[in-house]
Amino acid sequence: MTQNQTLKYSPSQQDYANVLRIFFWKRLSTRISLIILALAFGMIVYVIISKGSPPTIFELIWLLLPPLFVIFVFYFQPSRTANQAWQNEKLTADVTWEVSDAEVRISTRFGSSDLSWESLDKLVTSRDYYLLLFKGNKNAFRFLPRRVFNNAQEQEQFLELVAKHLPIK
After folding, report:
1. pLDDT in tens, 15-43
2. In the sheet that 111-116 helps form, which strands lie side by side, from edge to edge?
């Protein structure tokens, strides 16, 4: 018999920035973009070194684009979005997750969302967070900080309940 589980936490501004970085990193499209940028970076470095003359402005711009993209995607964009989220009172309210065999209910003082297991794609794990990814909107997710668990048994119970319905990656 599986028990329902209730988990409560207060999100922080840093939570939003961290989970966005994790979400971007875990996306296949981001990884493919990073590989392409690394190849482009390597080709530009090769061209600059092989021609033996100082790089042109065009080559310098192309040399800077990959690192600037990485800085933008993994630092500026998550930080900016976290700042915006932190200005929204609905996103800073205390959150309660009620996880059961029937659904995941996520509530704040402003309302609740009932998420059927069928609407969810998978659970992504990181060192500090769990991200529930949606099937219908590949850019949507909900996060649960690992700090909500009082002990390893609570965390294991959560993972067992989720594993009955979703793949865990």
Report:
1. 999 999 999 988 888 889 889 988 988 98
2. 5-9, 95-99, 103-108, 111-116
Distances from the Cα of 147 to the Cαs of 51, 106, 129, 150, in angstroms?
Answer: 54, 17, 8, 7
Calpha distance 156→166 (Å, rounded) = 15
Q: Which two tokens stand for residue 6?
A: 């209730």
* H or E segment and range at residue 111: strand 111-116
Half-sphere exposure in the Cβ direction for 120 (13 Å, CA) = 25
Q: Please tell me the CATH code under which domain 5-11+90-163 is placed.
A: 2.30.29.30
Boundaries of every domain in the chain: 5-11+90-163, 16-86
Judge contact between 131 and 19, C-beta under 8 A: yes
The rounded mean pLDDT for the chain is 91
Q: Using CA atoms, how far apart are residues 19 and 144, in angstroms rounded to an integer?
A: 9
